[in-house]
Amino acid sequence: MDWSLLLQLTLNGLIVGALYGVVAMSFVLIYKASQVVNFAQGEFLLVGAWVCWWLLTDWQLPFWAGFLFTLAFMTLFGMILQVVVLRPLIGEPVISVIMATIGLGIFFQALMKWIFGVFAKPFPPIFAAEQVSVFGLQVQTVYLMSLGISVLIMAGFAWFFTASKHGLAMRATAFDQQVAQSLGVSVPKVFAMSWAISAVVSSVAGVVVGVVNGVSSALSFYGIKVFPAVILGGLDSVVGAVLGGLIVGLLENWAQYIDAEWLNWGNMYTIAPFYALILILLVKPYGLFGTKNIERV
Amino acid sequence: MSAALETAVTAPAVAPAPPLLEVNNIEVVYNDVILVLRGLSLAVPQGRIVALLGANGAGKSTTLKAISGLLKTEEGEVTRGEVRFGGERIDGTDPHLIVRKGIFQVMEGRRLIADMTCLENLRLGAFTRSDNEVKRDIDMVYSYFPRLKERTGLAGYLSGGEQQMLAIGRALMARPKLILMDEPSMGLSPLLVKEVFSIIRKLNEELGITILLVEQNARMALSVASYGYVMEQGKVVLDGTAEALATNEDVKEFYLGGHGAERKSFKNLKSYKRRKRWL
After folding, report:
1. Which CATH number is B213's domain given?
2. Which of A168, A171, A181 to mutate to test the interface with B (most CBs of B within 10 A)?
3. What's this protein's family per the entry (chain B) (predicted)?
């Protein structure tokens, strides 16, 4: 047994899992607030990462400035997408809405390839020291940044949904749109806001992954990884999304360890989360944290 | 019920000042075809409690939704007539904007956000406000409903009476000028009904909030209201001061139940005689 490899992979799992969790959270946000299954979630990462990359390389902006501009851009991007594409589809069958988001995904995937090319491009280096040592383990600085940002976003979500009135309004809209309106909440605004926040948060994850691995269309795979995470956690639970993300991240890396040590199949990394997904859904069909409605009879 | 009661013989109630809420001859249509209200008019003066009575399906809830704009969320529409609030026309306005004008509807069945705590529900009531007195108002609500303060769990697990109190408290958080209350007594024990109505009266007296009250429990409603309307099939068929309505023979028969010697036997009512017997 290679203990240091196992430890290293566990750490990787946590870091990658936290990112999955962040993306899954933003997916759940859209699903909860506006009942849209967003198949273009991965493209949010892609667009955000490319925009940031473009600002840093072509415009030579310092990282913090490029990053802030990216966030501002993604806010508008998410909002406009909701208003232009999804608002007219309110009240249409679920399948039409799903087709629309799949279409959006394909469109932005192709658009990014057309503008920026098909090859992965690295971000300019952000940190002076590439690696730091944590408890004797060599960890890339960007990974630490990634973990820090993920935790920060999660704390931000927790604050937003319990302490801010717009977060409460969003939860109310998710629970019952008519009641939300009777309280003075504008439902179209909540929809637009949920898409804006989701796009921003996803793009942060996109930038982080881009900094680590370089920017390429592979980023949109995160949108697919979100599904096991989200379904594991329960489609409508933000906490579940985070835990689902962590579980998927850890499973991937542990599966890779088992694969490398004993099996040598070479593909466990990708499929392990889905096996786990099936097993968990057999026992808990709502996912780990999916809410069954509270009913008083 | 044909005999329209002359607008109160001894009514100093309706002063010449224009009422806070005025509904003029409105017609409401659902899904473009179903005509629910056919020329309904009513007025709610500032600072009063007005009761709206009627049987199931008479259109009471629809009237409230026409005022609060929530009709829009149910494919309904005011197709004729007008609703004026403080002189300003509000029919056709989006419900979330009407809340900002000062009309708050407490919907039938409380409709709390079941997966939020009491406190979160209250804070949500203040959504339209941007001042920093929300905390003070929460304490004010707790002073009216002390037992809500002890409830820290989810609103979905509160008892029926507590849920109704929370629904009213949530309405207060918006600092409305007019509260539209739909069936506050629904599903409550007689004791709790009494408690809720005494609180409704207190809110009206102490905070000066105008209330339009829809109720099945006509006796209770008329005991707190100063004026009342009786609806049937989408129209007002009778109106008058609460005292006049409470003593009106038709109202007594249909909504309050007969009294003493004049009590009618159910046997004499045709609909009961015709009903099939099982034993």
Report:
1. 3.40.50.300
2. A181
3. Belongs to the ABC transporter superfamily.
Quick check: is A254 in a domain? Answer: no
Domain around B82: 21-113+175-273
The answer to whether A47 and A202 are in contact (CB under 8 A) is no
Contact B113 A186 (CB under 8 A): no
pLDDT at B23: 94
pLDDT digits (tens, 9 = 90+) for B218-269: 889 999 999 999 998 899 989 999 999 988 888 877 777 655 444 455 555 5
The mean pLDDT of B103-131, rounded to a whole number, is: 92
Of B125, B156, B157, nearest to A183 by CB-CB distance is: B125
Q: Which residue has the higher pLDDT, A4 or B177?
A: B177
Segments forming the whole domain that contains residue A134 = 3-219
pLDDT (tens digit per residue) in A32-67: 888 888 999 999 999 999 999 999 999 899 989 999
- Tally of domains within chain B: 1
Residue A234 lies in a domain: no
**What value does the mean pLDDT take over residues B103-122?**
92
Mutation for testing the A interface, residue in B96, B110, B188 having most A CBs under 10 Å: B96
Task: Identify which of B154, B157, B174 has the shortest CB distance to residue A184.
Answer: B174
Cβ contacts from A onto B, under 8 A: 75
Full-model pTM: 0.84
B108 located within any domain: yes
Q: Which of B106, B95, B118, B127 is nearest to B171 (CA)?
A: B106
Which of B95, B126, B154 is facing A294, going by the closest CB pair?
B154
Q: Do A291 and B116 touch (CB under 8 A)?
A: no
By CA distance, what is B154's nearest residue in A?
A294
| Sign of the dihedral through C-alpha B95, B99, B102, B106 | positive
- In chain B, what percentage of residues exceed pLDDT 90? 64
Number of domains composing chain A: 1
